[in-house]
Design a protein that fits this description.
five-stranded antiparallel β-sheet, mainly beta
Length: about 60
C-alpha cells in the first residue's frame, strides 16, 4: 500500500502505534507528521509512509 501525506489532511485523526494521533501539516509528502491526542508538541513524531503501510488506520 503506497500513500502520501495528502491522503491524511491536517487535522484528521489516525490510529498508529497503539495510539490516536492528530495529523499536522508536513513539508514532506512522504512523511506523516503526527501529535498524539494525549501528548504535547514534544511528543510529535514523523512516520515514513512507505514503511508504515497498513499499520496506519483512519481513526473512527
Amino acid at each position: 500500500m503506497s500513500a502520501d501525506a495528502s491522503a491524511y489532511p491536517a487535522g484528521s485523526l489516525v490510529h498508529a502505534r497503539g495510539r490516536d494521533w492528530v495529523v499536522l501539516p508536513s513539508p514532506d509528502p512522504a512523511v506523516l507528521l503526527l501529535r498524539p491526542l494525549t501528548g504535547g508538541d514534544e511528543d510529535t513524531a514523523g512516520l515514513f509512509l512507505a514503511l508504515c503501510g497498513r499499520a496506519l488506520l483512519p481513526d473512527t
